[in-house]
Design goal:
- The chain contains eleven helices and ten strands.
- The chain is an alpha/beta fold.
- The chain has a single domain, classed as 3-Layer(aba) Sandwich (Rossmann fold), CATH 3.40.50.300.
- Strands 6-7-8-3-9-10 form a six-stranded mixed sheet, sandwiched between helices. The protein has a four-stranded antiparallel sheet with strand order 2-1-4-5.
- Helix 4 packs across helix 5, helix 5 packs across helix 7 and helix 7 runs parallel beside helix 8.
- It is globular, with a radius of gyration of 21 Å.
Length: 299
Amino acid sequence: MNEAVRNPAKPTPGPTKGPIIEIENLSISFFTRKGEIPAVMDFSCTGRPGEAMGIVGESGCGKSTVSLGIMRDLSNIGKIVGGKIKFQGKDMGELSDEELRSIRGNKIAMIYQEPMASLNPAMKVGQQLMEVPLIHDKVSKEEAYKRALDMVRSVKLPDPERMMRSYPHQLSGGQQQRIVIAMALLSKPALLLLDEPTTALDVTVEAGIVDLVKGLGEKFGTSMIFVSHNLGLILETCDRITVMYSGEAVETGKIKDVFDRMRHPYTQGLFRSIPLPGADKNSRPLISIPGQLPLPHER
């Protein structure tokens, strides 16, 4: 047999794609009657194509504010006061309102921690799902229905046709969250932001949602930023991690690198406070992190 047939030449790899999202020295403040309250200070991280980045930290550390800053959804009192957010190489601070609207919900989608806050209680689930391809892709109603039904099947909901005919209040919390995930993925976003998507769910439902998100990320090649205070969840779902403490990123890197060599006392404290199944509480007690975070305006 010809040598070239036995050992075909390997295809030459194409150019390496750059980061999907680059956050450089981001600072976000909220301006209230009491003055400026810094929520995020000098925060940097990078998300690559098909990669899941976890942002972990306790309540009030600013992790959700980072994801809202990416979406430019900071209400009228929040403002980015420093740094840059680049999406697919473009500085989002230089985009017009119209360009931002075309990116939000289309190229960047967000899943919030309370599913009912994302669903209209007066509209059937199918109508709400169909709005995404109707608005963003300008397809026919028949095509929009087909895409929505296919995505309901992808998120492993039983009896998809009945789900499409249901109102949100007729579904359980876990089913509602799966519908919200389906809605976010219908536009095939390049970046998916998940803001504590399992907080409102019980542990068994949470495990199913985590497996679902991991599988869908691999299937659609979507980059993800997973915001959570649950370190176990981040270890299970993400490739890289950024640990936030009091508005700042104190440690970042690949999951294995960070947890093989935890440098910051807060990361070490987080790791020691994870309950292990079957562990003897006397020989391995959970160690709480002492002290209290300073108030944002007293940092």
